[in-house]
Structures are given as structure tokens and as C-alpha cells.
Amino acid sequence: MRASSAPTPSRRTVLGAAATVAAATALPLAGTASAAPKGGARPAAAPHRWRTAAIGGTGFVTGLLFHPAVKGLAYARTDIGGAYRWDDRRARWTALTDHLGWDDWNLLGIEAMAVDPAHPDRLYLACGTYAQDWASPGAVLRSEDRGTTWQRTDLTVRLGANEDGRGAGERLLVDPRDSDTLWLGTRHDGLLRSADRGRTWSAAAFPAAPSASGQGVMFLAAAGRTVYAGWGDGGTALYRTDGSGGWEAVPGQPSGGASVKVPVRAAYDARGRALYVTYADAPGPNGQADGSVHRLDTVTGAWSEVTPVAPDAAAGDGFGYGGVAVDARRAGTLVVTTNNRWAQVDTVFRSTDAGATWTSLKDTAVLDVAETPYLRWGGEGAKFGWWIQAVAVDPFDSHHLVFGTGATVYGTRDLVHWAPEIRGLEESSVRFLIAPPAGGARLLSGLGDIGVMYHESLTSSPSRGMASEPVFGTATGLAQAALKPSYVVRTGWPSGSDAAGAHSHDGGRTWRPFAAQPEIAPSAPGPVAVSADGATLLWSFVHWDGTKYPAHRSTDGGATWAEVASFPRGGTPVADPVDPRRFYVYDTDTGVLYRSTDGGLTFSRGADGLPSGDVQFTVAAAPGRSGDLWLSAKDNGLLRSTDGGRTFAPVPGCTASHALGFGKAAPRAGRGRPGPGYPAVFQTGRVPAAYDGVAVLRSDDAGATWVRINDDAHQWGWTGQVITGDPRVHGRVYLGTNGRGIQYAEPE
User: Which of 79, 116, 189, 327 is catalytic?
Assistant: First the structure.
């Protein structure tokens, strides 16, 4: 879905994104390493201090929850980036699920969360990113210390935190009558119940039958001692139970007509004895064109419609209603949000008279996004919000209101002035990383949804925001000329124009679109490479549906392009870092490495019989060396060529390699040792001599030995997209995650 010129803030990597190129059960989680292999003790992991580079959000915040009894305690959930706890004293978020490792990548999406009003230290998370057959089942994490440590129960059903309906909820609830009882609504497997605080779960009797393609239970909400459940598969939309018997359809509920049929969220006003429910014609966050808001008087059972503004799709103003929250201090005061309202931009409506009248807070809002300049979307100006399905009112401060968008969390303390309350919460899906060799940026990053960024600092959001002229959504390529590092090129999905490629002559500080581009570029932008001297560009083209097109070559900075017939379609071009005439490309369909020695004009077969399949393998060229190639072949291990791709040999001891990059060589010991050593090699992979699982690893001896540099508390799920070292500081590493932004570290 792409509406307006803002990037679509949740088109995320699943598991096989475009290749990256580096030129240079029961736990207190985390787990423990296995015993050392026979033949000697494995080396101790090198202690590193891991931090998250500051960008500021960048992903879909799907849930926000204040604890009703503890001032300043709040939680957030995201669709692919885990859960967070708000530290009110420091005004920042703390990540709670970074301990989840490679095999548990599917648990980094948080379907729902719940707190216990009577026990403030208890927190529950329902984890599971995808409900498809190829994904692993979900799990429930439970904590007695606000998410500092966890115990885990694996489920037999799948959850869908990054699927349609992910902004609904919460689908997890502590029963208001009994803190030991929990309810969990699923998408395709009905309602689950636990009688032992989430340790075990079983199916609960529920009157509606789930559908394999439906939404199932959209939310669970407590109203006094009654529990309400929203149902998203058609028919009766709202059920309730008071604990004395089974579930029943709520009498008199709105039918919603032919289109408005999905209950999205609900909130209970205890002072006003009313339940407010938002509805839409689709679960969202996309595809909504109609919606409404209704109020149930829980004493009399009377329903009334309190919709602030009726959507009018025929007039170009179609949208749904999403978030709803009540003011715990003032009866009849509540807020609701529009969702998918692209024409007029989404808003938060506020009422102080139980929905009789409403005020749009967007209309008087003063936005300050200086802390996260990318929200200006390449100079277009910050938008109040889109994909607003999470909203919360601080129970201790009626004027402290927060809401989540597809990119950030906005907060206000006076209902007029708004700014991101996002410090510490980073959810970008990182596709490309370049650490320049000197001067200029500390780091360049190519991201899902928000293009390319120029990082002057790692502790504050890039001051220039997203790279503009042109603005991209998801970056599909980022490359730097090895011998002319001031020249950088980028490619990506166009946003606001049809330009899909751009170049920079000042190291990525400013950009201009290519003067021309191949006709296929806007609809199938793929990875790009630039020769070591910056004179030749190679651009590959792959549509989002997997269709591959011929690559093109330019020798005039993108003014003209010519097709390269011998380049394997859809491949990722890699430039030799020393010889401008050499390029390489790995054909994953056939398992053949192709080579060019004439500046990318023609390609010929090199090594063959290499791993093949429908995944992208990473080829990385060692800096400062011609023809020294490393191939991360996923579960086929790590291979290396020192003859320009004519032959490859396995790197002994490495059983899996998913991403690989290079950094500054280690200092050489002793006197009279001429020249620098081999560049430090970093990878996410599996080397049993260092660690049994997939880990972040470094080698200072060209792959002869490896040491693990992350630990069990820092794993971030799937980390197979990109990693690179810093050419200026030995041991410093930058790691791209799929949902936890850019992680970086250096030895302590």
C-alpha cells in the first residue's frame, strides 16, 4: 500500500531480502552456551558493549499501554521489532526482547501485551510475527520484574504481529476477577485460556468458529468484572462473559451494515460506566474506507453511535477508526483515532462529553520533530500521523497523550504541542551499511521504508533526515567507490517521483537523481554497484514479486544506460575494490560466479557448482585486495576465492554464514612487521568452535579462528542482512537487524 508521498511504513523483510554487499523452554532468558567441543575449550567470547544507533522509531508501533496503578510505567509493542518499557525518569524506552535469538526470529513480532493491575511487576507478551505455515508457532513470555527477565511458554498455534490486523487489540488480557487467569485471542485458533498465569494454555469454549483466513479475536477488554471480546471474522462482532457461564453475544450491538463489520479496539470508562468500541470495514492498517465509533452503557445496556466524522469514500475521504483510549481521571473524556485517512491525514479526536461532541487535535497541533528530522520526509514537512491504531492516555496526567504511527510515537503534555517520544525505540529493517574510510559520515545506512541516511553521529538521529532529491521508500542498493569514497550511489523504491536512482559526490551528504534511468527502474529497482574509480555503474533490476530483468550499465554517471546481456538477471553486482575493470555477480539460480574484466561490459563464467536456490547469497570483496572474495552461503557455510572468483574453497570450521563484512585490521604484535595485517572479518554465522548457535563473530586471521562478540542478551532475532566493520577503528562493528535497527559495538 502506498498512499501520498510518505513511504509505506511497514513493508518489511520476511526472510529472503535482496542480497547485501559489503565492499569493505522454560527460561529466564537468555540461554546458556553448550559445552565446549571435544579437543579443547572454546575461546571465551570477547566482551563488547552493544548500543543501538539513534534514528528514532522508523517502524509501526502497534500498541501502547500505561499501567493503571504505577505512575510513569508504560509499554509499547511493535510489529517486527519486539517490546519496550518506558523509563519515565530518563524519558526513553528500554528494549525488552533483544535476547531472542536466530532460531526465535519469529517471536520478535509482538501480537499483544498485558499488565496485571493488581501486580505491577507482572508483564505478559504474546509473540509471533507470522501466522503462515512456514513460520514457527508463537509463544507467551511472562515476567515478574517488568520485562527484565522472562519465562517462556511455547504455543502450538501461530500468531501474526506483522499481518493485517496487527494494530488491533490487545488480544491478551489478565482476567479482572482472578490474576492467575489469562485470556489470549488468536487469529485462526479461537480463544485460549490459562489458569496458571500463562504457564499452560488450553482452548476455551467460544461461540464463534475461527477461519483459516480470518482475523479471529481482535481484542479482549475488561469492563469491571466483565470481559468483552471483539470478533473479526464476520457475523456477531462483540461477545462477553462475566465468569458465571460461557460467552454470549452482546445484545443490541451495532450491525455495522454491509461494510463496517470489524471491531478494532475497545476501552472502558470506569467512571462513566461505558465501553467505547471502534469499527472499520477492514482490520487495517491498510484497506479501510469506512468506520464508526459506538458507546455501550454497561449499566443499562443501551448503545449509541458517537462517530466524530463519518467517512465518505465516494468523496475521496474514506478511512476507518482505530485507536480508542479513555481518561481514567475524568468520566466521559476519551480519544479515538482515524486510520488510513490519506486524503486529509489521520487525526486524534477528543471528547469530554462521552462522545457527544469532538475536537480534532490535529487541527491545533504544533509538531516539533527536530529530534528525528527524517519525519519531515525529505523536506515535505512532518505529518501528524498515519496508521494510527495505538493510542493511550496517561492515567496520572490527563494531558499526557501518546499515539503510535507507522514510524514513531508522538506525545503531548498539553494537547497542543507534540513531539516524538521515541528515544530508545528503534525498529528499522536495515538493508545496507557503509562505514566510510575517512572524514564525512560515521556511517551510511540503507533501510526498509525510509531510504538512506547519513549518520554524522551514532547517538542522535541523522540531522539531514532521509536522503532526498529523490526521496525513496525502501532502499534497494547502496554502494561507494572504493578508490573515490566521495562518490556514492543509491537505489530504491521511488516516493513522490519516478526516480529510482541517485548519486552523491560528497560522500552521501547531498544527492541528485541520475539524469536518466532504464525504463524498468521505477517498478523494479534492484541493487547497484560502482567501480573502484567511480567511472562505471552496474544496476540490477528485480520486481517485488521476484521477476528479474536485464541489468544495465552506465559510464557517464547515469546519463545513459545500456543493457548487459551476459549479466545474470536479478543478480547482485559487486565491484572489485582495487581494479576498476573488475565486477562480480553470483547467479543464485545456477550456483555460478560470473566475472567481468572489462568494466562490466561483458561477464563470463567463473566458479560453478556453488550453492544455489531461491535465497540470496552474499558476496563480499575484501578491501584493498583485488579478486579476494568471500561468499556467505547461508547454511552451506562460508567460501573464499583468492583468484577473482575462478575457484572457491570452504573456510574450515564455519558451518553457516549469513552476512559478512570487513573492518580495520588488528594491530600487529612485535617490531619489524611490515604493512597492515588482513582486514578484520565480521559475520553472522555458525562456527561451533566459537559458539554452537548463529552468532556475531570476528576473525583477525582471515577466517582461521573466530571469536563470538555478542552475548545471549544481545541477539535481535534474525541478523542475516548486513554487517560491516569500521575501517577506522579495529573491532568496531555495525550490524543491521530486521526490526531492531542498527546495532554497533566495540571491545570493552
Answer: 79
